[in-house]
């Protein structure tokens, strides 16, 4: 688990093909690794990766096909900057929100504009994630815990203050930049819970209008 508060900006040293998947080597920059052991987790652009080796300058991690297919990791190359956060501990300040490091989908920056000293981004999310994104709710973008400031269909607005721009890789985002998205954990589990016993059935349609009516959440027309 993570908080979405970035601790350092690292850089990709190499991506090595390994039997159809990848081995990733990260230069961790200013991230303190003295308390990191093999098997620990480090969020890299919001992706929970397991440390398999400590190199002195950073760490190595194996990346599965599943992760490659569902994230922006395959777009990284040697030298690419990445947001880094070590897994939280029980005495960590929860400055952001609870983040699992399990990416739900890839979004795309639609626009970027100045807003006083802040930068406002408009982000297009996959349509299937729109139902989990709420105005003034939390969303994790490339590992950064952010507040949704506006929403229009599957597009949402973010307002980044100067500190966030300085401490993350987001100052480099332009229209067309693809980003890893993780929706709020509570929204995902709430959907599953609302399905009740139907969740155990194969090929269920998820939370539908008919199901909400059956459970009494909405009234029939």
TrEMBL record:
Which protein is depicted? Riboflavin synthase
- What does the subunit section of this Swiss-Prot or TrEMBL entry state? Homotrimer.
Lumazine-binding domain location: 1-97, 98-194
Read off the InterPro entries from this record: ATP_synth_asu-like_sf, Lumazine-bd, Lumazine-bd_dom, Riboflavin_synthase-like_b-brl
Q: Which NCBIfam families match?
A: PRK09289.1, PRK13020.1, ribE
- KW Cytoplasm (keyword) present: no
Checking Pfam families in the record gives: Lum_binding
